[in-house]
């Protein structure tokens, strides 16, 4: 039965008021998150808002594969060297993602008995510069995938290249006085971020890298990181925060890469880095505004929880209450290789 005009108008007004209230609530929550996650040095270029905007401006194809496990990205203007397992002259694709997937298919998951035959790919995707080589997809095997051989790099290079880390590869250790956090790097989601971490490893200089903020799960998230019904979303915000800027090592802002849902164990930049955080919970309430470049292995999460329980003192960042460690924790970045005592199985 149709309503009278006056009733219909009243219903419309009520609906618009409700929508406006929802919009205001979401906006305030997002602004609050931005302030609560601001870099310690207050660099406006590294704000969470900027990071979220960058993710939205990415290509549609990239937006569709944001979640970890679906990413397949590379770095434009980079040509990797290495032994070819498939020659690009007779192996072509329409996109870099297709080339990446072809390499990925030759490096199966740990559940497979097949060895990883491909750990890097090189694609020619610029029609103007590639000419008759457009679409060439070279699949290669690096001797050391964490430190790949570079043939050429720069704006004048027509190639796009990427890495694939197999089981037990691409794992670094964030060594602290409370134990070593084992982190699996994600080159298919954040290739530029992984490249920076590789530079840190090669420099063997971690002075200045530290964790300075620690907030536990409180009464808002359970042991597995799931939000408890009707509980608040912080504070505390269930995270560790710090910096990966080594003293004496010039840092260049890292462009926004894949921004998947933040889950327990996610390691992500705050803005464009070098400030980073490790999530102790599944933060589905956070917008996809953080570049995730790694994931803490499950067995290392107990160390993260231990750090989150250390003594803290209250601080205020742009009117938001946060908890910072009374004594910041220094981090030493090291490589974890297969067969070492400190190596962990990824599952």
TrEMBL record:
Record carries keyword Calcium: no
Protein name (record): Uncharacterized protein LOC109713843
Residue ranges of every copy of the PPIase cyclophilin-type domain listed in the record: 173-324
Gene Ontology MF: a single term: peptidyl-prolyl cis-trans isomerase activity
Highest taxon of the lineage: Eukaryota
UniProt-annotated stretches for the region Disordered: 39-67
Transmembrane portions of the chain: 15-36
Keyword vocabulary terms for this entry: Membrane, Transmembrane, Transmembrane helix
């Amino acid at each position: 039965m149709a309503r009278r005009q006056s009733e219909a108008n009243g219903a419309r007004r009520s609906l618009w008021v409700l929508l406006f209230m929802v919009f205001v609530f979401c906006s305030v929550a997002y602004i609050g998150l931005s302030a609560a996650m601001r870099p310690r040095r207050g660099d406006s270029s590294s704000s969470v808002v900027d990071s979220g905007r960058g993710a939205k401006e990415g290509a549609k194809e990239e937006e569709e594969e944001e979640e970890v496990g679906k990413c397949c990205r590379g770095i434009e203007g980079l040509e990797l060297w290495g032994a070819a397992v498939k020659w690009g002259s007779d192996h072509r694709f329409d996109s870099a993602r297709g080339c990446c997937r072809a390499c990925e298919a030759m490096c199966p998951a740990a559940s497979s008995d097949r060895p990883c035959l491909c750990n890097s790919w090189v694609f020619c995707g610029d029609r103007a510069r590639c000419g008759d080589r457009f679409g060439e997809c070279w699949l290669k095997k690096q001797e050391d995938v964490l430190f790949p051989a570079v043939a050429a790099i720069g704006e004048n290079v027509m190639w796009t290249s990427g890495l694939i880390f197999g089981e037990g590869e691409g794992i670094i250790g964030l060594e602290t006085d409370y134990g070593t956090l084992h982190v699996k790097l994600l080159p298919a989601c954040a290739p530029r971020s992984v490249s920076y971490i590789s530079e840190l490893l090669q420099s063997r200089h971690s002075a200045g890298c530290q964790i300075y903020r620690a907030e536990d799960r409180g009464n808002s998230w359970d042991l597995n990181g799931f939000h408890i019904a009707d509980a608040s979303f912080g504070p505390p915000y269930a995270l560790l925060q710090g910096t990966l800027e080594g003293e004496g090592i010039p840092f260049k802002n890292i462009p926004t890469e894949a921004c998947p849902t933040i889950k327990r164990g996610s390691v992500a930049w705050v803005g464009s880095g070098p400030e980073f955080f490790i999530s102790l919970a599944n933060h589905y309430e956070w917008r996809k505004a953080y570049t995730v470049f790694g994931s803490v292995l499950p067995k290392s999460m107990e160390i993260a929880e231990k750090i989150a329980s250390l003594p803290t003192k209250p601080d205020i960042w742009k009117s938001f209450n946060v908890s910072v460690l009374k004594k910041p924790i220094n981090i030493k970045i090291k490589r974890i290789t297969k067969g070492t005592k400190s190596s962990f199985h990824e599952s």
